Amino acid sequence: MPSTSVDKSQLALLMELEPVVAKELDRHLSTADEWFPHQYVPWSRGRDFDGPLGGDGWSPEDSTVSPESREALLVNLLTEDNLPGYHHAIARVFGREGAWGTWVNRWTAEENRHSIVIRDYLTVTRAIDPVELERARMRHMEGGYEATHGEDLLRGVAYVSFQELATRVSHRNTGRASGDAVCEQLMARVAKDENLHMIFYRNLLAAAFEVDPDQTMRAVTDVVKAFEMPGHTIDGFLRKSVAIANAGIYDLRLHHDDVLMPVLRKWRVFEMGGLTPEGERAREELGEFLEQLDQAATRFETRRAERRARLAARRG
């Protein structure tokens, strides 16, 4: 059984869910496509940079992607860069042996392709200042990564069920907003991986609902209420996230409608029976929070539309 730092109750849950992990791992391996990052990078666009090779330094005019997608690409890549921290976090909970350990290593290998291909694209096409990018990477990774859910198994699986889908939505919309067909194709390829990862975790938590519906409902509610993207510690993340939201790449409406609700519906959390009063309280709390989030999303959409109308009027 995996050697983890979790307590005995979580160890028992790990053991009970391991057959599900093995089944989902087999399904994932039969579904995932083999792909190669180098095939998605337009190498012919590249040229030497300044420095030891004596090339040309980066300038803003070099970038052909939209300013909004440039912010999103930076956030997306820095998020992917912190993979060592994510690997450490899930390995501490899932363990490094058996089906759990095999999944951890497979997931890490697949995720690593994302930072490789996005960075190669950004560097070759000069979409982002590579000096700024490297300095931001160093600051972000030196800060490390600490999961908001700690080493709690149910909260960890609930979190990644939503986070993988959120990342898929963000990557896909970033590519669409870029104005570059190559970038859109590349980000769609990355998003496909994220979707398969989401399905793995979503199905795993569905099994956890069958094992312990009350505690799983509590975990889901806590995660939804406290959800933060893993890159929230990036320098200037709030400013960047506002720009990304204003561009419609990832905002509250998308988070509510395209991330939270599809997963919750798949788990049938609001139709589920067999909950104790404790589980019912968690579900009611979840429903109340979702109503508040929906209202906040509507307010944001209204303000954004008003801002766009004012800007259009000034330009007109």
TrEMBL record:
Taxonomic superkingdom: Bacteria
Q: Which residues form the signal peptide?
A: none
The protein's matches in InterPro entries, at most eight in alphabetical order, are given as: Fatty_acid_desaturase-2, Ferritin-like_SF, RNR-like
Q: Which residues bind Fe cation 1?
A: E80, E111, H114, E194
Query: What is any Pfam family matched here?
Result: FA_desaturase_2
Q: Which CDD domains match?
A: Acyl_ACP_Desat (cd01050)
State any GO CC term.
cytosol
Which keywords does the record carry?
Answer: Fatty acid biosynthesis, Fatty acid metabolism, Iron, Lipid biosynthesis, Lipid metabolism, Metal-binding, Oxidoreductase
Can you quote the record's cofactor note?
Binds 2 iron ions per subunit.
Kindly list the GO molecular function terms attached to this UniProt entry. Answer: metal ion binding; stearoyl-[ACP] desaturase activity
Q: Which cofactor does it need?
A: Fe(2+); Fe cation
Output the GO biological process annotations, alphabetical, semicolon-separated.
fatty acid biosynthetic process
Q: What is its EC number?
A: 1.14.19.2
Q: Which PANTHER family match?
A: ACYL- ACYL-CARRIER-PROTEIN DESATURASE-RELATED (PTHR31155), STEAROYL-[ACYL-CARRIER-PROTEIN] 9-DESATURASE 7, CHLOROPLASTIC (PTHR31155:SF9)
**Family listed:** Belongs to the fatty acid desaturase type 2 family.
What name goes with this protein? Acyl-[acyl-carrier-protein] desaturase
Q: What is the lineage of its organism?
A: Bacteria, Bacillati, Actinomycetota, Actinomycetes, Streptosporangiales
